[in-house]
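Quick one: structure for this chain?
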Amino acid sequence: MPTFDLTVMMYHYVRDPGDLCEAGTGIRGLSVAQFEAQVERLAREHAMIAWPDLRDLLIDGKPLPASACLLTFDDGLLDHYHTVYPILRARGLSGLFFALARDEDTGLALGHKIHFLLPVLTPQTLRDSVWNWLSPAQRERFLLAEARYRTYFNTGSPEDDILVLKSVLQRDLADEVEWILSRLFERHIGDEAATARGFYLSRDQIAAMAAGGMHFGGHSRSHPWFDWIGTAAQAEEIAASARWLLGIEPGPWAFAYPYGGFSTRSAELLQAHGFAAGLTTHEATSHSQPFFIGRYDGEALPDTWSAVENRRGQCDG
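Got it. Here's what it folds into:
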């Protein structure tokens, strides 16, 4: 398809310390004031669109307005109903929300268990706690993976250790540590299923948001790295999202790759299950492939402003 220009913003947690969403968990996010300021600036400088506008471009070739911008939100969090939805609705804006295809009585996705555990245990304590449950063979795999990721995350920042640990747990040992993280959650935090019910969007909240002009897309069922799992597993995750979305809004839909990871088969799998777009975490405002649309992370500002403005300047020139 022809190349098109679109600024897509990506958000996850939008919360303030001690509010209903943060609730003393220590899980930080973009502050409410920062989010409101970003939305106001984006609305001043761009033509804000909704998912149907992008879908019409991808399916029917209907052009987008100049300097178009789409707001997207990943993981289907309480923040999106309690904080984001009222802000968007008050301004007459729409958002595209990528929620997990989960049952309300299930626990947390693996990555979210880590988010809860890190403020309680610290990275080293979490690593040691997981290590104690691993078999000798699993420990060997852990060390090999850890050494490999240290070659990627070696800036000297304290964040390096967190990124290395997350990568090992979310990728190389994801299947093995799922139950371990659940045990640690119960020991140090409490009832995982009850926590999940107050952490993710409920069906009623999703229905209210949809009725208020918000749109929903797929984000898998268990939030794995698509560049790590096999084709069959990817197809199962995508199919779960398609089944879940059938009860929310008509397709075709958009899909946001969990963690931004995708494989050479991801696009065809999405297309086969009724999706018209795939969104990544790669920064881009110019797009030529509908299943690899780039996004800018709102939490990365002001760097994101610079990247967006530089790209707009190149287009204008």
